Fold this protein.
Amino acid sequence: MAPSGSRSIKRGCQRVLYWIPVLFIALIVAWSYYAYVLQLCIESIEDIGEKVVYLLAYHVIFIMFVWAYWQTIFTKPVNPLKEFHLSYSDKELLEREDRGESQQEILRRIAKDLPIYTRTNSGAIRFCDRCQLLKPDRCHHCSVCDKCILKMDHHCPWVNNCVGFSNYKFFMLFLAYSLLYCLFITATDLQYFIKFWMAGGRAHFRLKEYVNGLPDTQAKFHILFLFFSAAMFSVSLASLFIYHCWLVCKNRSTLEAVRAPVFRHGTDKNGFSLGLNKNFRQVFGDEVKYWPIPVFSSLGDGCSFPACLVNLDPEQPSSPTNSNPVNKVAAEGRQFPSKPLRESQSRLLTSTPSWSESDSATDKDRKGASNPVMIIENEA
């Protein structure tokens, strides 16, 4: 009981510590709201028209930013469906086998009933010992969450959550709106920052002449620090946002950018790329009206994805045996659109695919006597 109790206390302390970065961001945002709305707009800006325009624009950006941040934090990461978990009999069979090759034979037999096309670097079936499941394509085990996450991108301490299939769109919008938030503050605060800076630089000579635009020392401090903070965050957020935009255009996760996925034909960094337009739609969905809003609109359910340059294996099914993706998602209470892959992600393959990201010579080697086919792996 004692070791178990100590582990529970340790896990509880870790959970509290994990929220510290989120609390820090929340405090920074709360202070920025006070500094901008009260100290800058209400106390310092005298022109009524300018004040109204600034406040309206600021609150629109602020609401979208907070909404996207909330969704990124509190959207629960999605785990693989039960078809990917080992049955009790398969677990017993796997435990009885001591040799790795024998265990791989068992896993390969199970994998034949699942839409799994990626492998380990050694060519073995991707299996999670902790979760006791066969990992779907693009799924990885998070050591912080201690579970397998579908299309895992990374574990972000600033949101205390895994960024993956269920909240990657929210994460992108969070980066976009937070960058817009900082840039807006920097741009609108600039003239008042300059006025204060000049007043401070010439304080010994003509202090009163330059202080008229800024009512008191407290407001001037907030305006100065607000500008510096927003400018610094703008630089870091811009670099992070540009990087993730590049990942979306290439249809890669952060983990896949570091280590390219391995297919049966070998490593292929562009294995999931379908072209710029289709890659974007896979994350943000088909309906343009939902793109800027933090509501789920990504295609599929994250267990499998359309892949390019994957040779069709006649023994490999396109979906788990006797499974319906829509019913499975609904049965587990996941708040995703009730669209099976055949209706959503299959649209990604309706037009002529773009192979601009693949090397033509490599493609010819992969084709051999037959043409590569683009396949739809029905969501499991």
User: Anything to note?
Assistant: The longest strand covers residues 140-142.
